[in-house]
Prior knowledge:
The protein is α/β, with parallel strands linked by helices. The chain has a single domain, classed as TIM Barrel (Alpha-Beta Barrel), CATH 3.20.20.140. Helices cover 48% and strands 16% of the residues. It has 10 helices and 8 strands. It has helices at residues 18-27, 40-52, 64-69, 72-85, 104-121, 133-147, 163-171, 186-194, 222-233, 237-252; strands spanning 2-7, 30-36, 56-60, 91-96, 125-128, 154-157, 175-179, 200-203. Strands 1-2-3-4-5-6-7-8 form an 8-stranded parallel sheet. α5 packs across α6. It is globular, with a radius of gyration of 17 Å. The model has no long low-confidence stretch (mean pLDDT 96).
Amino acid sequence: MLTDSHAHLFMEDWFPDIDAVASDCRKRRVKYVVNSGLESETNRKALEASKKHKLFLPALGLYPGEASEKSEKELESEIGFLRENISKGYAVGEIGLDGTYPFIEKQKKWLSKLLEIAAKESKPAIIHSRKAEKDVIECISEEAEKKKPGYNKIVMHCFMGNMKLVKRCAELGWFFSIPAICGRSEHFKSIIRTVPMRQLLTETDSPFLAPARGETNYPWNVKVAIREIAKIKQITEEECEKIVFMNFSRLFLV
């Protein structure tokens, strides 16, 4: 069975019929999709979708751009909603740092609070790190040990850092979710070569990052990542699928 560890299926412009997406997922052997919120509105939508379709596992997050742009009062409200509802979620995410937005120190402050929730609840943290890869690793390493020593349920979503940083994350026991664009990306092929099989997941970031440029991405496109991982790791696609499913299960389902 296939698993998508990171998608945004609440975006109605791309997915006007969520029931049809759920039906197609089942037909195409997608067992679970982690539906990652970006702030309280989309967190609510992720929770609602999970009530109707059990294969959509809600993750409650706060996108780093939100942390940059919202007021302190608004962010306190966001964190309050997340704390109140995280027991219904399967992960804290999408969270992290983004260097394309201002106020990185402000982002770090709120990332610390989000990591505290994830560690306290023993939930995976799904990490966004665009143009802030080194900073986010340092922030997580420091905060994780401070909040809960040994906590390492970290998923590096669509990680674009160099191989030195990849190796550092892998040594810490963190996971990497490989997107469906890996077939046309030498960077992600290098991550697949570098990271142990037991720490690899598959993702789509639906509706973004489709295997073919300009198309809408769907959860079943994780099969593209499965194919590429199997090729590089020199195992069968069936074996690759089973290992990724086990990785997903021990991270999100226990």
